[in-house]
Specification:
- The structure is a homodimer.
- By secondary structure, chain A is an alpha+beta fold.
- Chain A has one domain: Pnp Oxidase, Chain A (Roll), CATH 2.30.110.10.
- Helix content of chain A is about 20%, strand content about 35%.
- Chain A contains five helices and twelve strands.
- In chain A, the strands form two sheets. In chain A, strands 1, 2, 3, 6, 7, 10 and 11 form a seven-stranded antiparallel β-sheet that branches.
- At the A-B interface, strand 2, strand 3, strand 6, strand 7 and helix 3 of A face strand 2, strand 3, strand 6, strand 7 and helix 3 of B.
- The complex binds flavin-adenine dinucleotide (2 copies) and protoporphyrin IX containing FE (HEM) (2 copies).
- Chains A, B: It holds the Pfam family Pyridox_ox_2.
- Chains A, B: Keywords: Oxidoreductase.
- Chains A, B: One of its GO terms (molecular function) is oxidoreductase activity.
- Chains A, B: This is Pyridoxamine 5'-phosphate oxidase family protein.
- Chains A, B: Its EC number is 1.-.-.-.
Amino acid sequence: MTDLSQTDRTRLRRTHERGAFDRATIDAILDVQPMCHVGYVMDGKPVVTPTFQWREGDHVYWHGSSASRGLRASKGAEVCLTVTILDGFVMARSGMHHSANFRSVMLFGQAFVVPDAQKEAKLSAFIDGLWPGRSAMLRPNSAQELKATTVLGMEIAEGSAKIRSGGPVDDDEDYALPIWAGVIPVRSLTDAPLPDPRNLPGVEMPDHIRSFRQDDQAR
Amino acid sequence: MTDLSQTDRTRLRRTHERGAFDRATIDAILDVQPMCHVGYVMDGKPVVTPTFQWREGDHVYWHGSSASRGLRASKGAEVCLTVTILDGFVMARSGMHHSANFRSVMLFGQAFVVPDAQKEAKLSAFIDGLWPGRSAMLRPNSAQELKATTVLGMEIAEGSAKIRSGGPVDDDEDYALPIWAGVIPVRSLTDAPLPDPRNLPGVEMPDHIRSFRQDDQAR
Ligand SMILES: Cc1cc2nc3c(=O)[nH]c(=O)nc-3n(C[C@H](O)[C@H](O)[C@H](O)COP(=O)(O)OP(=O)(O)OC[C@H]3O[C@@H](n4cnc5c(N)ncnc54)[C@H](O)[C@@H]3O)c2cc1C
Ligand SMILES: Cc1cc2nc3c(=O)[nH]c(=O)nc-3n(C[C@H](O)[C@H](O)[C@H](O)COP(=O)(O)OP(=O)(O)OC[C@H]3O[C@@H](n4cnc5c(N)ncnc54)[C@H](O)[C@@H]3O)c2cc1C
Ligand code: HEM
Ligand code: HEM
């Protein structure tokens, strides 16, 4: 695991002190937030699709229908995969110094198609990464389902993390003003799981469901 | 407020029954989730930047530094602005029928620069949309701050919403299997505001902070 080198594309011009290129920082964000937004170019124009990603070693993966317009356009093409966690609103004494606390990652590169022989293992890693042990408890995938599914991957080679944390930073003279400033923390949270009414009698909620937390803080 | 017509670009090919083109559905998603991801093309390659958006009537807006690489590349150019709310994980009896509950909007079009004369009003609408009445309580914006800030806008003219809700939909024969299925609800939440230690003595938390909820459910 080597840290990423800055490229012309990934050098942060704005608030660059918030940037990070080390894999520990990048991986921690990727591993805690499965949602991502994948950007690709279609007919010269940008498209941003919300989807799920998962990481295995030096790659991130995402999946969908083999007929998906977005996956087809992304194969072998340049994509930008962005993962974002909002941690809070930063309330300052002037408009301009309002901000947000966040952790985000932008990855750039070419997407490749995961070969058929590895597809099932990748999809199981996706499921088990979120819910350890679940893939083995499911009805096995059919050959037709696997054929209908495409898994794309991308090397974690060019990209950056950006992190803001802490309170507002106001202009010196504004601290004398009687204006409430501070942080409104935001986080995501899982509520109690809702069993499907068609679950068979006696089927208990497995540990991987009971202990699952989408809390953006750690997994 | 006219509903959007489907275009070739916005016709949902996958699970099209989840698509919606009426403005009430689209606006409700835009109004409840300030975070968005803006895609633009730079040197022929896609970039996806997390940022905040706000809506006024038939337009969405976003802002940043006048020197921002992303804002400069987006001016007068095609962008895709995507807003996403994750409502839950959908746990099925087979891998393939796992899914997510979500509400999302994709908007396409050309971004324009908000003229200087309207910039301050737009930024106040951004602040007051989240925290009613706050902009008037702040230290006034300086001319230099306004100059350093660019607000981009985009007409809500081409785009779509996509919504999934409800429990898993499994293959008929899989309902006979003793596998736990259901939904794990996810939502975002605000914790108690943290006052800046440098707030002046006697400055109370305003109502617009006390009653603020980033709960993704309604505002
Ligand atoms: C939180 C979240 C997680 C998701 N995870 C996955 C995943 O892991 N795998 C997966 O295959 N899909 C996932 N989706 C759905 C994904 O966003 C796409 O809808 C789906 O992949 C179909 O993509 P496509 O390129 O084939 O779209 P098409 O249906 O070909 O797109 C055509 C047009 O339909 C509209 N459209 C498509 N998707 C959306 C959308 N999400 N919101 C608004 N308009 C839309 C747009 O106008 C688009 O230009 C997820 C969505 C959300 C919100
Ligand atoms: C939840 C959230 C809300 C935000 N809201 C706003 C807003 O309202 N206004 C605003 O101006 N900015 C906002 N930002 C910051 C925004 O994402 C950009 O970092 C900022 O706008 C600078 O953009 P730029 O195009 O000038 O980037 P540059 O600094 O020129 O980008 C150069 C390179 O830096 C890296 N980089 C830049 N931004 C990020 C990032 N967020 N994550 C990882 N790598 C990055 C990328 O490699 C990029 O290619 C928000 C960020 C988050 C996560
Ligand atoms: C009058 C109102 C505002 C003005 C004039 C303004 C101006 C600016 C400017 C100039 C930047 C660029 C900073 C830089 O890149 O160096 C910026 C960034 C930003 N603004 Fe605002 N802003 C305003 C209100 C808000 C509000 C209300 C929020 C949200 C709560 C907000 C959130 C952000 C965020 C998250 C960034 C990115 C900071 C970063 O890159 O780390 N802004 N704003
Ligand atoms: C073996 C495992 C899996 C396979 C084979 C698989 C396959 C597929 C396929 C083929 C589609 C496209 C459906 C369509 O567009 O018609 C799809 C979409 C999707 N998948 Fe998966 N998937 C798997 C696991 C998961 C998991 C674990 C999740 C997350 C919990 C997930 C979330 C989604 C979502 C959200 C969509 C989009 C549905 C929509 O467009 O509304 N998938 N999957």
